[in-house]
Amino acid sequence: SVAYFNGTFVDSNDPVVPIDERGHQFGDGVYELIRIYNSKPFMLEEHLDRLYMSAKAIALPFDQERESFKEIIFQLIERSGLDNLDVYMQITRGMAPRNHLFPDAPVSISMTAKPFRSIPPELREKGAKAILHPDERWMNCYIKSLNLLPNILAKQEAHKAGCLEAILHRDGKLTEGTSTNVYVIKDSRIQTTPLSRHILAGITRMAVQKIAMEAAIPFEEKHVDIEELYEADEVFITSTTNEVMPIVQVGDKLIGDGQPGPMTRLLQRHFQELTTTTVSA
Ligand code: PMP
To answer: Would you please indicate which residues are annotated as catalytic (active-site) residues?
Structure first.
């Protein structure tokens, strides 16, 4: 599949990244994953806002003008020959002999274009399972940093347990999933972790909040504890790749009657409408 590295379009298997590259050696960079539905990038501006914010938060000198950066994305989409795809992009602190101190080097920009990461459709229909896992990450999870080791380890634990996701908790309260935001529904109210340094401000979360507002469903940002998770009427997670995914079992406890609930269904439907109708800049 097609990819981009520092000014050139390449094949994603081409060996273009040198050993002394800080994304490779330190995970010293930030990233985004943007989904393109029917050739239209979904919530592109929001993703780019977050990318520039993340870069700034780690003092990455990513000063590429936004329009020319978007031009690269559009060219990559075009070259992919795909209508529905995931565009992954990362910006790192560039190439320099390995040394913790910031190098005097230009940032590296890489991107890939791939067909949708497939999530089994029956999970979206019947709901998925999750485990609980302690949140062992750092204090700046609002940054979409390349450093994902705690997320990877927790997700692998979930996978070993036959589950899709690990729901993380800190001080007895849910934070988010390893690559998703998490929500409970109680008495027809959506409740989700308030934005803070402890979670990523999901773009899909933003979409769900908007859908809830338009459908006059209360959307409450509040700390949810583990008991409240178990006693929820419905639970779901969201992300760019998972969209709105019902969670019907956490550990060995069924949520509600173990079926996706009506509000999660409604949100799934409305989200799908957004992805099929939104025209992005
Ligand atoms: N939290 C974490 C830790 C993530 O990695 C992701 C996926 N990027 C999300 C939440 C969901 O964010 P989004 O809806 O923007 O994909």
So the answer is: 144
Q: Which CATH class is domain 121-277?
A: alpha beta
Query: How much is the pLDDT for 158?
Result: 98
Listing DSSP states for 174-211 in one string gives EEEESSSEEEEEETTEEEEPPPSTTS---HHHHHHHHH
Instruction: Give the residue extent of every domain in the chain.
Output: 2-115, 121-277
Expressed in angstroms and rounded, the spacing between residue 202 Cα and the centre of ligand 1 is: 5
Conformational region of residue 103, where left means phi above 0, alpha means psi within -120 to 50, and beta covers everything else: beta
Q: Which residues, listed in sequence order, are joined to residue 36 by a DSSP beta bridge? A: 41, 85
Report pLDDT for 239: 98
For residue 90, what are its two tokens?
């990362």
The ipTM, to two decimals, is 0.99
The verdict on domain 2-115 having CATH code 3.30.470.10 is yes
Segments of the chain scoring below 70 in pLDDT:
278-281
pTM: 0.97
Q: What is the pLDDT of residue 281?
A: 43
Nearest CA to ligand 1 atom 2: 179
